[in-house]
Structure formats: C-alpha cells, structure tokens
Design a protein that fits this description.
It is a single chain. With 203 residues, this protein is an alpha+beta fold. It has two domains: 78 residues, Helix Hairpins, CATH 1.10.287; 108 residues, Sandwich (Immunoglobulin-like). 35% of the residues lie in helices and 29% in strands. The longest helix is centred in the N-terminal third of the chain and has 33 residues. The two termini are 34 Å apart.
Length: 203
C-alpha cells in the first residue's frame, strides 16, 4: 500500500513557509542596510520622490501575490491529505470523557488510555465526547481534532514507525485536563493481532 503520511506533508509545508520567510527577512534586512548607507542624508541631502514607478509597483504586487498563492496551494494539499482517508484504513472509535480516552476496535475490544495500532497501516480515528469539548492531539503525527458531545469527527494518520507516542487533550476541559493523556503504541502487525485477540481487562 503506497500511502503518503499527512505528517510529512505538513512538515514540508512548514519548511517551505519557513524557508520563504527567512529569505524575505534576509532580503528586507540587507535592503534596509543598503538604503541606510546608499541614501544617507550625507550622500543625499535632498530626498527623491519615486512615485509613479510602475515597474516597481508591478513587482511588489505580483511577487507577494505569487508567494501567497504558492503557500495556499501547498497548505491546501496538506489539508486535503488530512481529510482523505485511504481505503482499507483501520477504524477505531475514540471516546473522550473527563478525564480519559477510551478506544474501541472493530472486533469490539476496548482499551482505556492506550491506543495500539500495527506498523505500516493507515488508521482512522472516529472521535466523539460524552461530556464537554475535548481535543485529541497526537503531536508526533501532527494531528488534532475536537471531540464534541453528540457529534462524530475524524482524523487519520499513517503508522510509519515503531514506538510509543504521547496523546494529549488540547482543549481545556476542567481541573483534570493536564492529566488527560494516553499512549499511542505502534507495534509489528503480528504483535498487534495477538494483542487484539486478547480480552480487555474488564471483559
């Protein structure tokens, strides 16, 4: 399965925007330094009026417009990547409640505070809340979505590396908000199948 991780797309957009910002910052700074010396009062005691220079006006209108459009284009591509879930994605129901995360798998297995998924698979999280507004945030995979009572939202990620990753609530939901965390574990597929086949603690 050839899946492009939305996290990589988001990182590329960030690097692109940061790179352009750095180039513009350096360009403006160097231009200011040049003007300080080139057009100082000592060299040019009489100020010059440059109004009516249509070439300059075209440049400073067209260039920023093209830069802004390019940022929008790459940003839109990464947004579409976050919304278009690949076929065959693993479906997991996520329920938020003060102050915990509960995960239910396609075979009915439930886990509290631990999300386990297999390596190399796209995973779709169908998110809702039993009480106030929460927000599911997995920083390592650049995904964040609100959990709203009576409403289903979703987000997906591509489990492209083994390990344990932090899941947080990014919406202040009460006095226990800071403790509303969980763990995402990405494991080899065989280990995932074995874990999925075992019963939950409360079963």
């Amino acid at each position: 399965m050839n899946v492009i991780s939305p996290a990589h797309q988001i990182d590329q957009v960030f690097i692109y925007i940061l790179g352009i910002s750095v180039v513009i910052l350096i360009g403006i700074t160097l231009t200011m330094i040049f003007f300080v010396f080139r057009y100082s009062r000592k060299r040019h005691p009489q100020a010059e009026d440059i109004r009516g220079n249509w070439k300059l006006e075209v440049v400073w209108t067209v260039v920023p417009t093209l830069i802004a459009l390019s940022m929008f284009y790459f940003g839109w591509k990464s947004y579409v990547g976050l919304r278009n879930v690949p076929e065959g994605a693993i479906q997991i129901e996520v329920t938020a409640e003060m102050y915990s995360w509960e995960f239910m798998y396609e075979n009915g297995k439930e886990s509290d505070g631990e999300l386990v998924v297999p390596l190399g698979k796209p995973v779709k999280l169908n998110v809702t809340s039993l009480d106030v507004v929460h927000s599911l945030f997995i920083p390592a995979f650049r995904i964040k979505v609100d959990a709203v009572n009576g409403m289903k939202t979703y987000v997906w990620f591509y489990a492209d590396r083994l390990g344990e990753f932090v899941i947080q609530c990014a919406e202040f939901c009460g006095i226990g908000h800071s403790q509303m965390t969980a763990v995402l574990r990405i494991v080899p597929e065989e280990e995932y199948e074995d874990w999925l086949a075992t019963k939950s603690k409360d079963e």
